[in-house]
């Protein structure tokens, strides 16, 4: 079964390159998989990859999209599981840094075993023991940015033909309960809010007190942040940090040419703990200081933040502070629409995104960080919650 499932995984990858929606990258001189831009672009000219693949005289695979390429990628992934590593950048050079004693999987060398549980199902139905988890890390749908099931069906209809043993029983992955906003399917912001809140609350009940609940999120519209804010408050969590993290491809259809961010905000939440007072913001200047540090961190990681990136980071900090300010008197029994309204109303009392954006310039943010740190403007006192 392991071999069969591995072949099915590789076949799923192969499908992405062996179809009439594939295009040719004239810069990289190779075919592109159908999901390279998170959508179904229909080009005027299709690119047909060699099905088996092409290897040169040294055994190195040429191009992309062939079976040899897919299997080699799978082999590298399995090798990484046996010996994980991080990448350290030394100038323009990349150095692999091994992690001694670490490995990924349920068995290693046929002897070491771990209890790993993978469930293909809805998180709203998960049956987890209370206070049993050391952490929850997730990447929820970004409101209406991507219709995941519609894309997933491309590979799903093939995979469900391979084996009844695989968890592919339904005809399609599409469901009226899918947690994305899709007005043509009758899924509005209240549907999205209620679903995300149910998932978050269920996971938090299984989380040990004070342990992290972290997720990534970004969107062009601040209204799209209201549902996860409601979900955090409904779950009884406080948002202790919002961190910038490059995570998106600028060529993606839902991003290209829109001035959107390629940076996610990583929200870190806990039920109890302490936060540094310097992370709490109330004035335009407070938020500007936080954004300045974020942009400097991004530059240090090799990413030059755009106005779109800064806008989404501003949204992250504003929503984090709204959660912090509303958490004590929050009533989770209210209707989804009423809770969304409360979030919106509170955000109007905070500095507005345009005001904060004007106070932070991507060009001079690095200078401002130095001034803030040397000037000792931050109060490092910690606050318990």
Structural notes for this entry:
Helices cover 35% and strands 15% of the residues. It is α+β, with helices and mostly antiparallel strands and 385 residues long. The strands form 6 sheets. A 4-stranded mixed β-sheet has the order 9-10-12-11. A two-stranded antiparallel ribbon has the order 1-2. A two-stranded antiparallel ribbon has the order 3-4. Helix 7 crosses helix 9. The longest helix has 20 residues, at 307-326. The radius of gyration is 23 Å and the shape is globular. The model is unreliable at 364-379 (pLDDT under 50).
> Regions with pLDDT < 50 over 5+ consecutive residues?
364-379
The fraction of residues in strands falls at 5-15%
Give the strand order of the largest sheet, numbering strands 1, 2, ... along the chain: 9-10-12-11
Span between N and C termini? 49 Å
Q: Say how many strands there are.
A: 14
Output the radius of gyration.
Answer: 23 Å
Q: What is the helix/strand order?
A: HEEEEHEEEEEHHEHEEEHHHHHE
Structural class: alpha+beta
Helix content: 25-40%
How would a textbook summarize the main sheet? 4 strands, mixed
Provide a count of the helices. Answer: 10
What is the residue-mean pLDDT, rounded to a whole number? 85
Quick overview of this protein structure:
This protein is 35% helix and 15% strand. It contains 10 helices and 14 strands.
Secondary-structure map with pairings?
Layout: H1 2-15, E1 23-25, E2 30-32, E3 54-55, E4 61-62, H2 67-82, E5 85-90, E6 93-98, E7 107-108, E8 112-113, E9 136-138, H3 148-159, H4 189-205, E10 213-217, H5 226-234, E11 238-246, E12 263-270, E13 274-276, H6 284-300, H7 307-326, H8 336-348, H9 353-359, H10 365-375, E14 382-384
């Amino acid at each position: 079964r392991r071999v069969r499932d591995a072949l099915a995984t590789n076949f799923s990858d192969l499908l992405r390159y062996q179809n009439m929606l594939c295009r040719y990258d004239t810069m990289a001189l190779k075919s592109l998989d159908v999901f390279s831009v998170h959508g179904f672009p229909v080009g005027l000219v299709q690119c047909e990859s060699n099905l088996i693949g092409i290897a040169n005289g040294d055994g190195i695979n040429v191009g992309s999209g062939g079976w040899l390429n897919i299997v080699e990628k799978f082999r590298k992934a399995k090798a990484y599981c046996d010996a994980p590593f991080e990448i350290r950048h030394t100038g323009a050079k990349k150095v692999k840094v091994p992690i001694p004693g670490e490995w990924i999987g349920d068995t290693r060398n046929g002897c070491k075993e771990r209890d790993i549980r993978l469930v293909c199902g809805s998180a709203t139905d998960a049956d987890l023991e209370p206070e049993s988890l050391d952490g929850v890390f997730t990447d929820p749908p970004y409101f209406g940015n991507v219709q995941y099931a519609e894309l997933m069906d491309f590979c799903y209809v093939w995979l469900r033909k391979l084996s009844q043993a695989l968890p592919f029983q339904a005809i399609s992955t599409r469901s009226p309960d899918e947690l994305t906003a899709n007005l043509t399917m009758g899924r509005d912001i209240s549907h999205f809010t209620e679903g995300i809140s149910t998932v978050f609350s269920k996971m938090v009940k299984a989380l040990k007190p004070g342990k992290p609940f972290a997720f990534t999120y970004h969107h062009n519209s601040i209204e799209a942040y209201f549902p996860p804010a409601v979900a955090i408050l409904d779950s009884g969590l406080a948002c202790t940090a919002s961190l910038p993290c490059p995570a998106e491809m600028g060529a993606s259809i839902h991003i290209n040419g829109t001035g959107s961010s390629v940076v996610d905000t990583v929200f870190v939440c806990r039920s109890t703990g302490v936060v540094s007072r310097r992370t709490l913001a109330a004035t335009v200047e407070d938020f500007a200081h936080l954004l300045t540090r974020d942009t400097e961190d991004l530059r240090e990681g090799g990413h030059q933040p755009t106005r779109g990136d800064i806008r989404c980071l501003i949204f992250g900090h504003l929503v984090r502070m709204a959660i912090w300010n509303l958490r004590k008197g929050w009533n989770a029994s209210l209707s989804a629409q009423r809770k969304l309204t409360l979030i919106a109303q509170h955000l109007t009392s905070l500095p507005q995104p345009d005001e904060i954006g004007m106070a932070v310039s991507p060009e001079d943010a690095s200078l401002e960080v130095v001034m803030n740190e040397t000037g000792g403007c931050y109060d490092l006192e910690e606050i318990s919650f």
